Amino acid sequence: MEAISKARSDENDEQICVVRTPNFSNIARDYGCSSNEENTASDASYTSWIKRHPSALSMFDRMMTPAKGKRVVFLDYDGTLSPIVEDPSCAFMSDSMRSVVPEVARYFPTAIISGRSRDKVQYF
């Protein structure tokens, strides 16, 4: 099984680790769950999707270089910055939370993590 993992140690020797899960169509092929034609189509579809939606893991070193030696804050949008709600389109940050995030970012490199598309969270 193929996986990509990157790990770094911060100034306190704490491990920072990012793992990319493998392409599931390759796993299915390894276990004989689909034909070669299906895998080829699936792999082509995956490649096309990755070109349109690149993974941050491919830019891991470039993103982490400015943060070297610093503590970095990663905040999840759903459930941390905004409440969990039945309809995700109704998940909004409170005004107080919206004012706190820039304050935190003044002192620490800060990233907002989300499974949503960039368009959905860019102007939250």
Automatic annotation (TrEMBL):
Q: Which one of the record's GO molecular function terms can you name?
A: trehalose-phosphatase activity
Q: Which domain of life is it from?
A: Eukaryota
| UniProt-listed Pfam families | Trehalose_PPase
Q: Which cofactor does it need?
A: a divalent metal cation
Coiled-coil stretches, from where to where? Answer: none
GO biological process: any one? trehalose biosynthetic process
**Mind listing the UniProt keywords for this protein, alphabetically?**
Hydrolase
The organism's taxonomy opens as: Eukaryota, Viridiplantae, Streptophyta, Embryophyta, Tracheophyta
Name the record gives this protein: Uncharacterized protein
Origin species, per record, is: Coptis chinensis
Q: Which reaction does it catalyse?
A: alpha,alpha-trehalose 6-phosphate + H2O = alpha,alpha-trehalose + phosphate
